[in-house]
Amino acid sequence: MLRYLTAGESHGRGLSVIVEGMPAGVPLTAEEINTWLARRQGGYGRGGRMSIERDRVEILAGVRGGYTLGSPVALFIANRDWANWQEIMAPGPEARAERVVTRPRPGHADLAGGLKYHQADLRNILERASARETAARVAAGAVAAALLKELGIELAAHVVRIGPVAVKGAVELSAARQAWGSPVYCADPEASRAMVAVIEEARQKGDTLGGVVEVLAAGVPAGLGSHVHWDRRLDGRLAQALMSIPAIKGVEIGAGFELASIPGILAHDAIAYREGQGFYHPTNRAGGLEGGMTNGEILVLRAAMKPIPTLMQPLPSVDFLTKKPATAAVERSDVCAVPAAAVVAWAAVAWVLAGAVMEKFGGDYLPEIKERMAAYREYLSGI
């Protein structure tokens, strides 16, 4: 079973990740992980924190000579801003009670977390609730993607909407692969330019923007996941992983919400058969998932991100201690983090798919898994 844990605060010493269950023999380097960490930090609309941090991963355990060992993989991403916060965020009693936050920000975890954990200084909540933690998730996702790559499964992610600007029509996998060249990770050059413009407009107004990201996965064989129990349905697991990303408020698979407005004869994908290929669907409104299982088509998943709730023109709030009206606290933030969310969504999908592959095929050594998966693919094409 694949699983991972992360630890660390936004202004703490750094972020730690432990990945368990990765088979031996998977090629993995720090440079490969760093590519995705850099993409998470990029994208037009990011804030001042990204001008401070230069995320680089340190592999502490579980890898030797560029290959996983089968033991837990330990990763660490240092926070460069720790130098400015070490006396405030110190774990010992010497920590200085400065930069205290008592004015909760609407849309953040501040108020709910302060109530749940009995914390008067809401910094004790926002430090962990911060999207800074997603750097650790991206590192874990990059480890999972390294396994998927060896098994012939390829993922791409891109932005399909920022604020009022949206890509027109479906984006093919080949185009989505090139999206990283756009300042907003959008595969459509015209939409990309318009997205940059609306982000700049929001920046000048002191406002923020949300949007929609899409993740595509090709080479996924039919039969990952299961229909037999609610918690084994792969669509549910993928949706949960995407919904767990900070600021994500909606997830759809394939045609998604559009299916609610059209008749069944137009909503479902016909089934066809071709010698040497096996069963397939000429269309893909289901987004590659039926009955909680992959059906062999490209996976298509989208996640909707709300505008960043830290505003330069803060909304009304109430002081946590005095209970008097106040404006919400202002922390350093982004104008738009939708491009970064595309990277985090990529990592989330990679992780869930890698887990589903290991459940289906098992094995402690990469060649074992490759052999089992190749035999299964042969079965699917020859049935």
UniProtKB/TrEMBL annotation:
One of the record's GO molecular function terms: chorismate synthase activity
The EC number(s) this enzyme carries: 4.2.3.5
Cofactor: FMNH2
Pfam families: Chorismate_synt
GO biological process: amino acid biosynthetic process; aromatic amino acid family biosynthetic process; chorismate biosynthetic process
Keyword field contains NADP: yes
Keyword terms: Amino-acid biosynthesis, Aromatic amino acid biosynthesis, FAD, Flavoprotein, FMN, Lyase, NADP
Pathway annotation: Metabolic intermediate biosynthesis; chorismate biosynthesis; chorismate from D-erythrose 4-phosphate and phosphoenolpyruvate: step 7/7
Keyword match NADP: yes
GO cellular component: cytosol
Domain of life: Bacteria
Cofactor, how bound (note): Reduced FMN (FMNH(2)).
Binding site for NADP(+): 40, 46
Chemical reaction(s) catalysed: 5-O-(1-carboxyvinyl)-3-phosphoshikimate = chorismate + phosphate
Sites where the protein binds FMN: 128-130, 291, 306-310, 332
Similarity-based family: Belongs to the chorismate synthase family.
NCBIfam families attached to this UniProt entry: aroC, PRK05382.1
Subunit text: Homotetramer.
Function according to Swiss-Prot or TrEMBL: This reaction introduces a second double bond into the aromatic ring system.
UniProt name for this protein: Chorismate synthase
Annotated organism of origin: Moorella mulderi DSM 14980
